[in-house]
Amino acid sequence: MLDERASALLEKINTLCGEGGFKIAEEGELLSCLSLGATKEDVKRALSRLEERRYIEIKYAEEGIYCLRPLPEGRLYFQMLKEQRREGVRRRADGFFLAMLGGFSGALIGGLLVMLLLFLMRGI
After folding, report:
1. pTM score > 0.70 for this model?
2. Going edge to edge, which strands form the sheet with 56-62?
């Protein structure tokens, strides 16, 4: 599993490269996807981590300009991350609707019990 910075950087690279192939990216562009307070050294470290793990390939890196592309492993990681996010949203939606259904059915049963008690008390 990647840390937040490397994951955000990989997401940015996958978005930049779109269909695939090498793309040129400036250091400032890559730095913008990292958290506040990130430095150029953080970008270099994250890129080297991604390259070591075979998520990206760096063709060249000179004076803040990078030519890079995501590898199949990087695309797969990116797709799994998107799927996990979708799954989390779906779980929250399911939980919300089940809670609503439970609340509604509890209120309905409670109301019916009150009506039954009132009917029984008037009949006595």
Report:
1. no
2. 23-26, 65-70, 56-62
